[in-house]
Design the sequence.
């Protein structure tokens, strides 16, 4: 009877392919159909950029949101089992945590230090692959007083991944419009003095400044830190030019990309305006950035070569040096040379630090920011 019930819901999930959906409404519909067949107490359904595996927005609930930061750190900074990037490269795209750790809870930092203290006893993770690319992750959670997920439930979810992945790929086209819905259509422009005093701004810039002030919890009279950061960086570049200092530093763009609390990414770039009459000023452009733009922006900020950017893309997807070498048709020694150069340019010392830096910080490096 349970098998027949599950088959009916499988059909319902595949029937969703005929509907007209946004990315969010489709994921919400999938979650509704999953609940009767694979009961869960909490969930996180995330879409990702297939080229970098960076999140493009999650459908979640308060119980998971409360531990989101810990899960984020675990995914990118700690050794553990069933990492999303590992599941992407695995032949089996769905995995149950408790089934892997029940005899040895110490084997998973996530299970011992994050899930159990939060009252969860198990999680089931799935990655969605379509056309050889990953388009999203789904994690279902059960409370500690509930039975763990079963192999039958894992197999059922695995069967549904093809249809869900296809729809995540299709609705990714509408996701861009969803992400832009609340944003101004025109670019934001503000002018500031060399003393970082706001001179003027258009309506779009006023909107973005209000979002930044809300994020930082600062007063309406305070210029947000990212604006001060790019402006200060520009001034330092101008000083280098005037002193004929290192030309490579002078070429560094005064640009920053940060993630707002609602998931949108905001790009800021400063430019020097030479006044024909009066003191020079600084112009700052503010535009919404799409997730697929982030890697190139950060790579540009650090002066990575095209080959280094390609290596970085594979590192973010957790490829080993051997796998990167095979994909790029180069030797592992050349991969290591590229990695050493990337480490030097970004100021990190390991792959783990590199991934954490590019995934968690969309802003200028420490020496280019101000307090």
Sequence:
């Amino acid at each position: 009877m349970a098998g027949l019930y599950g088959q009916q819901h499988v059909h319902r999930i595949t029937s969703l392919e005929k509907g007209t959906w946004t990315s969010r409404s489709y994921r919400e519909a999938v979650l509704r159909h999953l609940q009767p067949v694979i009961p869960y107490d909490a969930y996180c359904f995330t879409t990702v950029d297939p080229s970098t595996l960076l999140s493009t927005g999650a459908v979640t609930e308060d119980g998971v949101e409360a531990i989101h930061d810990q899960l984020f750190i675990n995914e990118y900074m700690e050794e553990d089992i069933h990492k999303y990037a590992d599941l992407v490269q695995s032949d089996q795209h769905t995995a149950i945590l408790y089934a892997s750790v029940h005899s040895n809870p110490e084997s998973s930092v996530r299970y011992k230090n994050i899930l159990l203290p939060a009252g969860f006893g198990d999680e089931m993770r799935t990655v969605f692959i379509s056309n050889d690319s990953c388009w999203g992750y789904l994690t279902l959670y059960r409370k500690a007083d509930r039975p763990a997920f079963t192999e039958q439930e894992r197999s059922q979810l695995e069967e549904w991944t093809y249809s869900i992945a296809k729809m995540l790929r299709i609705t990714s086209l509408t996701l861009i419009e969803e992400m832009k819905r609340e944003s101004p259509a025109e670019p934001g422009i503000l002018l500031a003095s060399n003393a970082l005093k706001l001179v003027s701004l258009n309506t779009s810039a006023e909107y973005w400044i209000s979002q930044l002030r809300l994020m930082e919890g600062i007063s309406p009279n305070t210029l947000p830190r990212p604006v001060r950061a790019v402006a200060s960086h520009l001034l330092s570049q101008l000083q280098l030019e005037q002193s004929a200092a290192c030309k490579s530093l002078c070429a560094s763009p005064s640009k920053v990309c940060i993630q707002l609390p609602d998931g949108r990414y905001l790009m800021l770039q400063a430019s020097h305006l030479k006044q024909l009459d009066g003191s020079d000023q600084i112009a700052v452009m503010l535009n919404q950035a799409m997730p697929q733009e982030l890697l190139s922006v950060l790579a540009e900020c650090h002066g990575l070569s095209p080959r280094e950017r390609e290596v970085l893309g594979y590192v973010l997807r957790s490829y080993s040096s051997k796998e990167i070498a095979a994909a790029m048709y180069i030797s592992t020694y050349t991969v290591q040379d590229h990695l050493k150069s990337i480490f030097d340019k970004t100021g990190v010392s390991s792959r783990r630090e590199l991934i954490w830096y590019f995934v968690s910080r969309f802003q200028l490096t420490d020496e280019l920011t101000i307090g």
Observations:
- The longest strand covers residues 120-130.
- The CA atoms of residues 27 and 189 lie 36 Å apart.
- Confidence is low (pLDDT under 50) at residues 362-371.
- The chain has three domains: 2-180, 184-289, 291-371.
